[in-house]
Amino acid sequence: VLLALALEPLARRLKLPFAALLVLAGFIGSELITGAGVDLGLRWHHFRDLVLYVLVPIFVFASALTLDARALARQLPTILLLAIPVFLISTAITAALLYLGIGNAAGFPFLTALVAATIVAATDPSAVIQILQAHKVSPALITKLEGESLFNDGLAIVLYNVLLSGMLATTAFDAGMSVAAVALEFLRVFLGGALVGALMGGIAYLAFRLYTQDSLRAALTVAVAYLSFSTAEGLGGMSGVMAALVSGVILGIAVSRSDAAFVKTLWSFIAFIAAGIAFLLVGVTITTSLFTHGWLAMAIGVFAAFLGRAVPIYAALPVLEHLPGVERMSWYERRILIGAGQRGAVTAALALSLPTTLPGWWTAQAIGYGVVLFTLFVQGPLFAIVLKRG
């Protein structure tokens, strides 16, 4: 936390994303420590539970709680269009490009490519929202970006978990999995988690209105975030992420209808701590061998993620926009969708949590890290420059 606080002013002065300096600090610090022959006892697998069961619920719930519920409802048809069909098309295109680009069916099978594509397809525009607001980009488009990020983060995490549970449970990994079986399991996990979240969020909504003290309201939100997550996970392995997301959206309505500034401040603080930990861990787990041996996979990942995002927005979205209730977007707005569709904490967290038993896991992690690093050091700063120049 102290390191994060020390780096934040430096990030503003250098006009770099704050997360970029956290990754650098984690990388340089770990290289210096290991180079000096010091073993702190930390291993990659120690981070998995921390990431999946502590950090991920924070990212999802904080985003859901602080999103403007009224604005979300107005833009919901377009948001769902971006977060579901566009996301799935993007994932499929990215997976195909990764599989063909890596070109090693034995060491990097298609299902691993699909897992890697799921990791890098989740968008996170939070780093550029302030830039968009400063350049008077329409609030409706910003809501679409935030809403898309919220829902496709949830979708990506559910799909990631379903794919991994199916792949690691079978002994015939290379034989593949039934598409129908994956789809049914996905729907069970996804909808079951959403139902748990709706139930617990509804109860919490009523309780929130009964309390008047800021501290009690804030404590309730923290309890619901983790209770909805753990309850869904414990009830037949339903999606804790979807439960946290839905309960967060419902509680967000209560927060927006009352004077609950402290609740928003608390979750801003919690999200700051979680993001700081996640990006520092990314830096800690990056090694020089990742760049010397994994540079090609990282480059392929950046190319595949960019095309996987651009193709459905330019080719599929204009067709899907004919559906009722969906607002049509200008070509300028489509360019914003691509430029602001960056990858952040959720992509970093999922890449961190890849199990070493997954065939080609190291390549998949290199792809995830490569896309996050490209976002932090190239796409983010470049997007800000392009936007300023109009």
Task: Please outline what is shown here.
With about 400 residues, the protein is mainly α.
Number of E-state strands: 0
Mean pLDDT across every amino acid position: 88
**Terminal-residue CA separation:** 37 Å
Query: Based on CA inertia axes, which overall geometry fits?
Result: globular
Uncertain runs with pLDDT below 50, 5 residues or more?
Answer: 171-176
Helix content: over 70%
The gyration radius over C-alpha positions equals 20 Å
Summing up helix and strand content along with how strands pair, one would put the structural category as mainly alpha
Q: Strand share of the residues?
A: under 5%
Please trace the helix and strand order, writing H or E for each element.
HHHHHHHHHHHHHHHH
Q: Counting H and I runs of at least 4 residues, what is the number of helices?
A: 16
Task: Report the biggest beta sheet as strand number plus sense, adding barrel if it closes.
Answer: none
Work out the oligomeric state of the chains in this entry.
single chain
Annotation keywords:
390 residues, mainly alpha
Q: How would you characterize this protein structure?
A:
The protein is 79% helix and 0% strand. With 390 residues, the chain is mostly helical. It starts with a helix and ends with a helix. Mean pLDDT is 88; it is low at 171-176.
